[in-house]
Each structure stands twice: as C-alpha cells, then as structure tokens.
Design goal:
With 164 residues, the protein is an alpha+beta fold. Helix content is 37%, strand content 18%. Strands 2-3-1-4 form a four-stranded antiparallel beta sheet. Strand 2 and strand 3 form a beta hairpin. Helix 1 packs across helix 2 and helix 2 crosses helix 3. It starts with 8 loop residues before the first helix and ends with a helix. The mean pLDDT is 91.
Length: 164
Amino acid sequence: MPLKADLDAIDWKILRELQDDGRMTNVELSKRVGISAPPCLRRVKKLEETGIIRSYRALLDNRALGFDVVAFCLVGLHHQAEVELKAFADRTRNWPIVRSAWMVSGESDYLLHCVASDLTAFQTFVIEDLTSTPNVDTVRTALTIRQIKEQGLVTIDVADTAAR
C-alpha cells in the first residue's frame, strides 16, 4: 500500500507511542523512540503541522459519567443526491447524542455511533429526531452489550512500516 505521507521508522514509532499515550512528556517519548528530546519535538510538531496528528483527547468512561447506553444506528436515505447527503451529514453535527458518524456503502448510507444516558433518551432521539428527519427512509439500531476492544484508530506495526 503506498503511503500518502513521507514517514520514516522513527515517525511511525512516535505515532504508535502517542496513539497509546498522548499525555506523555516529550522526554519520555524521545526515550521510547530512541532519539533525543529536541529532534523528537521537531518531529512531533511536523506531524501536527502536516495534519497527520489532528488533535489530542482524553478518553472518558461514559458509564462512570452516567452515559450507560452505547448504540449504533444504520440510516438509509430516500435519495442520495449530494445535496441530500450533505444535509444529513450537517444534521448529525447538531445531535449531541451522535458521537461519531460515517457515510458508508451498502444497504445503508450512514453509520452513527450514539451515547445516551439511558434507553429512554436513546429511544427519544431515534423516534423524535432521527426518524423524523427529512429524507430518512430506514433506521436500524443495535444496542451494545459491552465493549471488548478499544485501541487507536490506526494500526501501527513499526516492523511493518520499516518495509514501506
């Protein structure tokens, strides 16, 4: 697979380490990747400036904060014209219950990752907001039972990236 960015093995190590722990100090990061702190910081800044590192976030425990329902919604639209797709995508940005959204291929047009305080709040969203949205044809929901894996969004195997 061709790379879209010019990264060497050290850059890949930096990305892997930051994806696992974005709060570590530059000194700790430099030790983990095997270079001194100043060039490590320059590399991180370059990765940020080029947009490879988009942001840093805290991963929160939704259940500890009282958000017990995690669900996914597959949404099909009546019409898939660009203006209709954009209108639906814009709406998802205004629904706080929707934490992530993807346009997908197949039987559905969108996949929504939702987090709600309880089942009633999720049902209210689905019935009053989602299904009543213009151009929405079908909504299929899947309530989660428990999360069994959570990792960074990109698989980074440093040994694998050296061959690239």
